[in-house]
Design brief:
This protein has helices at residues 14-24, 41-44, 87-97, 125-130, 135-146, 153-157, and strands at residues 7-10, 29-35, 51-58, 61-67, 79-83, 104-105, 110-112, 118-122. With 159 residues, the chain is of the alpha/beta class.
Length: 159
């Protein structure tokens, strides 16, 4: 049993977002859907039967998505890191998560998807390059990374 489960607060499109995410990540699935009832309508203002929460997995990591209304929005203070071993894998996740809608591509491998969720699409080797014994190499890697949006593994290695 997972002790900590991230809960993502959506206005009213949690089900759409969950279907989007589970279509991208392998070993992903929708686990449970809870729906609003008539009880508490004066507070939640959702028609009975509409989706309240969805429990789902992405690569075995459990998440909850909540249709909580327009009160809160996502921001970059919380992001999800996707560790990619190859450029092909990095390109795949970058392409899928940055597809459609109001996507904001940011520097250093960050993007904000069409639902406003922030992602870091990064290779594990980045940490090794930045924390290696060669301080000059680490500086060059940092300088190179800061100029990139989607990360280029070979470009980082060659820095």
């Amino acid at each position: 049993m997972q002790k900590i489960t991230p809960c993502l607060w959506f206005d009213s499109n949690a089900e759409e977002a969950v279907k989007f995410y589970t279509s991208i990540f392998k070993k992903s699935k929708i686990l449970k859907i809870a729906r609003y009832g008539e009880e508490g309508y004066e507070i939640h203002r959702r028609p009975a039967g509409t989706v309240m929460t969805i429990e789902f997995e992405l690569n075995g990591q459990t998440f909850t998505a909540l249709n909580g209304g327009p009160v809160f929005k996502f921001n970059e203070a919380i992001s999800f890191q996707v560790s990619c071993k190859s450029q092909q894998e990095l390109d795949y996740y970058w392409g899928k998560l940055s597809k459609d809608g109001d996507v904001k591509v940011q520097q250093c491998g960050w993007l904000k998807d069409k639902y406003g969720v922030s992602w870091q699409i990064v290779p594990p080797i980045l940490g090794e390059l930045l924390q290696g014994k060669d301080a000059e190499k680490a500086k060059r890697v940092m300088s190179t990374m800061l100029k990139m949006q989607k990360l280029d593994i070979e470009g980082l290695k060659n820095a």
